[in-house]
């Protein structure tokens, strides 16, 4: 089988043949059809986060494919069904977080493409309990970006407690932001897209953003305050300065939702404005299996549009360069 493999953090990813894998007890073997490239894969491949994966490993946690074989003891999945293999590869199922619908906070979770081999490969094995069925009629290439970018932004909108009639600003309109905008609109908000490239803002406009702000040309705080301020600001850009702008663009009672993980780990938080304005600062990490099922249902119902570019797995290093240099407007999805 072909698999993208990280050999060392300072070397390009190698796409090579490796021995075929088999499902262990409780696992399914999935023939991957589509695998989305997430920024986390790039951090993983370069060992950029405090806890690094152990090479050699295969990144990828937006895998979608067909269940081919069931491991011993698997009864709730069947061969031939299309499933998504998300970041939350498995969790304990028993801790206070797991039993209270907060499994993404489980302290013993194992992450796909990080703690175990992921989906940038022709085949993947996954914990049968943590794969999520993809509804009939949702193509694999569209399901892939929803598996991380979709569920992550959907969850961010949910934890923000966004209500109809509120104003939501989305900072960073790429693979995640174009979906965040659509979810904010589904929740009934007036939406503001903030980015530094016109192509992405045009995409945002095409997807129904009520306002767009080019932060390279205008001060986004001034622009958003001019509209009355944001009730919710969701930050998807990996730059602490953007977090500070997002905070400053909020109205009283506003909620700042942190999603991106900048290499530079700290932001400046103005205490007076936060206290007097009753501002909430919220961290949001991916989403649960139930959240992903909702994301798929919305897409199957025609409520969302997924923007992506198709690439070959052999082009993974070029794709990473393109993402890092901002040449990709939405999501890169490898076709397998
Ligand atoms: Zn991801
Ligand atoms: Zn747990």
Structure overview:
This protein has 336 residues and is α/β, with parallel strands linked by helices. It folds into two domains: 192 residues, Medium-chain alcohol dehydrogenases, catalytic domain (Quinone Oxidoreductase, Chain A, domain 1), CATH 3.90.180.10; 123 residues, NAD(P)-binding Rossmann-like Domain (Rossmann fold), CATH 3.40.50. 27% of the residues lie in helices and 26% in strands. It has nine helices and 17 strands. The strands form four sheets. Strands 3, 4, 5, 8, 9, 16 and 17 form a seven-stranded mixed sheet that branches. Strands 12-11-10-13-14-15 form a six-stranded parallel sheet, sandwiched between helices. Helix 2 crosses helix 3 and helix 2 packs across helix 8. The mean pLDDT is 96. The protein binds zinc ion (2 copies). The site of one zinc ion has 7 residues, from loops.
Can you summarize this structure?
The protein is built from nine helices and 17 strands.
Mean of all residue-level pLDDT scores: 96
Number of domains: 2
| Sheet with the most strands, sense and barrel status | 7 strands, mixed
The arrangement of helices and strands along the chain is: EEEHEEEEEEHEHEHEHEHEHEHEHE
Strand content: 25-35%
Please state the CA-atom Rg, rounded to the nearest Å: 20 Å
**Structural class by helix and strand composition:** alpha/beta
CATH classification, class level of the largest domain: Alpha Beta
